[in-house]
Amino acid sequence: MVPGTGARDVIVAGGGPAGSAMAVMLKQRGHDVLLLDEARFPRDKICGESVSPEAWRLLAELGADGAVRALSPHPLRGMAVTAPDGTCFRGDYRGAAHPGFAVRREHLDRVLLERAREAGVEVREGLRVTGLLQRAGVVEGVTAVNGSGPEAARGRLVIGADGRRSIVARRLGLLREHRRLRKFAVRGYWEGMQGLEERGEMHGGGGGYCGVAPLSPTRANVTFVLDRREMSAAGGALEGFYRRTLRRWPRIAERLARASLLSPPRAIGPLALEASRVSAPGALLVGDAAGFYDPFTGEGITLALRSAELATEVADRCLRAASARAFRALPDYDRMRHAATRHKFRFNRLLQVVVGRPWLANAAARRLARRPDLADRMVSIAGDFVPARTALGPGFLLDMLWS
Ligand SMILES: Cc1cc2nc3c(=O)[nH]c(=O)nc-3n(C[C@H](O)[C@H](O)[C@H](O)COP(=O)(O)OP(=O)(O)OC[C@H]3O[C@@H](n4cnc5c(N)ncnc54)[C@H](O)[C@@H]3O)c2cc1C
């Protein structure tokens, strides 16, 4: 990073789950990796903090599963979903090797960043990436600023792992806000919430939805998602807005009646961003930098780890080949990521259609409450260990309509 320093194999911009995972996986394959993050860890991240069972496989691959278990995350054995009319169905992560879990992101992300450091990645915190070094349309590094001024770092490959508003993706002209989805979220932590189980909760209605992730038997992350236009009602007084808005979900509000809000709520939005491609000459995008749709199914962390796994396969192949021509294979990652995610993304879009229409959400919830086998399947697909294509075939849809 100082003038005169030679090029690295890889520069990773962003040290969230995607960036830390990518850095570890590339280091495990023998590459020289520099990871930069504008934050100093532990840092907060607004998130529902429910992690799907499939994440354990990827955490084990990183050698981080032990450290995550040491955080004593709250186990999640499935989901309870409440429709706008109050119909509730429960689904279990049936057949998963491990339950999912809920954990504060400030702890999870610190553990993953520490794992990168331990693996031999050079990690620099407090360094904000501001742009890309490019020659003849090929990315060759990044520019950054820290407390004492600008810097630059050169690398054979740059990984954009810098989250939803990725500067890497934006400088490449690959990221834009979603045309229709204009949602925002507000999150608060509560102590003393009644009725928490080893299960994540999703409550529809109220003009959006509200998620509850139990972080302990009495402590919870309560995050709601609404259309962005409603944010103007906050008028700069977020806590009052958050408390008032929670009354739209009476089943949550009554369980919070004697609970205390642990810290001022925080808001984030607009949530949905689309990336037109996830590779460019000399660069790959992983995690939210490769696009973000909606947090309803709570899969972002697992997807961040999975996208790092896929990108590592392509990056490793390119870095090992001596010639610059090998880097022409970077678009393989676009194809692999599309193949790995398209069914799940279709499933998520279908869910949005249902969630956005209370009459349909009520009807679907009534069916699922009567058919625990289907409820388990839905929840397991959301948990990423049952392929989404099993819910997209005619068999499942017929079951949903005529069971
Ligand atoms: C309201 C909400 C609820 C959600 N709930 C869930 C859930 O329950 N379960 C789940 O799995 N997922 C959930 N998600 C999604 C999940 O939070 C993301 O998918 C996940 O954090 C993606 O990880 P990432 O590493 O790509 O990005 P991030 O976690 O955002 O990490 C990006 C990193 O890049 C750094 N950075 C950013 N810009 C720069 C820069 N210019 N220079 C240097 N560093 C930079 C940041 O400091 C950060 O550390 C939710 C998201 C939202 C918005």
Word description of this protein:
By secondary structure, the protein is of the alpha+beta class. It folds into 2 domains: 8-74 and 98-179 and 272-344, FAD/NAD(P)-binding domain (3-Layer(bba) Sandwich); 183-268, D-Amino Acid Oxidase, Chain A, domain 2, CATH 3.30.9. It has 12 helices and 21 strands. Strands 1, 2, 8, 9, 10, 11, 20 and 21 form an 8-stranded mixed beta sheet that branches. Strands 5, 6, 13, 14, 15, 16, 17 and 18 form an 8-stranded mixed beta sheet that branches. A hairpin with a 2-residue loop joins strand 9 (128-135) and strand 10. It is globular and about 60 Å long. The protein starts with 7 loop residues before the first strand and ends with a helix.
Summary?
This protein is an alpha+beta fold and 403 residues long.
Proper CATH architecture of the largest domain: 3-Layer(bba) Sandwich
Structural class: alpha+beta
Q: How can the largest sheet be summarized?
A: 8 strands, mixed
**Which percent band covers the strand fraction?**
25-35%
Oligomeric state of shown chains: single chain
Q: Counting H and I runs of at least 4 residues, what is the number of helices?
A: 12
CATH structural fold name of the largest domain: FAD/NAD(P)-binding domain
Number of domains: 2
Terminal-residue CA separation:
62 Å
User: What is bound: which ligands?
Assistant: flavin-adenine dinucleotide
Low-confidence segments, ≥5 residues, pLDDT <50? none
Helix proportion: 25-40%
Indicate the radius of gyration in whole angstroms.
21 Å
Total strand count, please?
21
Looking at the structure, what is the overall shape? globular
User: CATH superfamily name of the largest domain?
Assistant: FAD/NAD(P)-binding domain
